[in-house]
Amino acid sequence: MEASDAGWLQDVFKGSPKHDKSAKHVKPKSSASAKPAPSSKPHNVKLAALGPASIALPALKPPAPMCEPSKFRIVLDVGHTAQSEGAMSARNVAEFTFNLRLAQRIEEKLKAEGFAETRLLVTQGKARPSLVKRVDAANNLRANLFLSIHHDSVPDSLLEKWEFDGKKSHFSDRFSGYSVFVSHENPDFKTSLVFAELVGKEMKAQGLQYAQQYTLPIMGHYRHPLLNKETGVYRYDELIVLRTTRMPAVLLEAGSIINRDEELKMSSPERQEAISNSVTAAVKEFCDPRWGILGPL
């Protein structure tokens, strides 16, 4: 949640929900979606806030993969920059540090699994200009999929004071968990939602819980529609990196670093491994739906 590159999520907050208040809302043109194979049956994806929707997923038979892993290009966007570091953790570590470390781990895992065209996107500059740079870079790379990596915080009004290592800091142990965001304004919203669902499903399979505070009245205008109460997928239309990229795009808030216990977990190799495994499994199943049913082929 903090002020983020994710939609400029603004640096106005340093520990507040990520929101782009100044970005103009421009609705991109919808891209034509491919017709499913004759044997394909639509899978119902229930959207808790929007009602049921039927999204056609690729047919499992005949066993033709949706993509070729060695040529599939996923851009891993490291949220924030060294100049605009995002939220500050309970122990005074910048969000950018967490984002970079986790994104590098996911990159290693994906490449080891054959996704050689995975690209790590590290952007320089202040918050808003960096958003334009990262979107342009992803579009110019002609990426097949865009995943922005972030770590969460809470609004300033929910922060409590404490002292760590002799320095004043803030924390909020009230909320924890990951969140997955998609924008209905993305030119391929349906495909974005399919991937978001896979990420959430795999995170849940690792025993992780999603953050539920975005549905609460206490969040005020920072509340977001919960699209799936099982996987923790939320709709957030205004995020620049989700609505202006020309490929399916998802933003992952991997966990809360303003929560003192979860901050320690997010720094652990075990949690980073669990999250990187989740993302890798989601990409595999996105690329070839058979993988989710049969496992490694």
Task: Please tell me about this protein's structure.
The protein is built from 7 helices and 11 strands. It has 297 residues and is of the alpha/beta class. It has a 7-stranded mixed sheet with strand order 4-3-5-11-8-10-9, sandwiched between helices. β3, α1 and β4 form a beta-alpha-beta unit. The longest helix has 19 residues. The protein is globular and about 50 Å long. It starts with 42 loop residues before the first strand and ends with a helix.
Write a concise synopsis of the structure shown.
This protein is an alpha/beta fold and 297 residues long.
Mean pLDDT over the full residue set = 82
* CATH level 3 topology: Aminopeptidase
Classified by CATH, the class is Alpha Beta
Q: Please, how many helices?
A: 7
Shape: globular
Largest sheet, described in full? 7 strands, mixed
Outline the low-pLDDT stretches: 1-65
- The CATH homologous superfamily name equals Zn-dependent exopeptidases
Present the secondary structure layout.
Blueprint: E1 43-47, E2 51-55, E3 74-78, H1 95-112, E4 119-121, H2 127-140, E5 145-152, E6 160-164, E7 167-171, E8 179-182, H3 189-205, E9 226-228, E10 233-235, H4 240-243, E11 249-256, H5 260-266, H6 269-287, H7 290-294
Parallel strand pairs: 3-4, 3-5, 5-11, 8-10
Antiparallel strand pairs: 1-2, 6-7, 8-11, 9-10
Helix pairs in contact: 1-6, 3-6
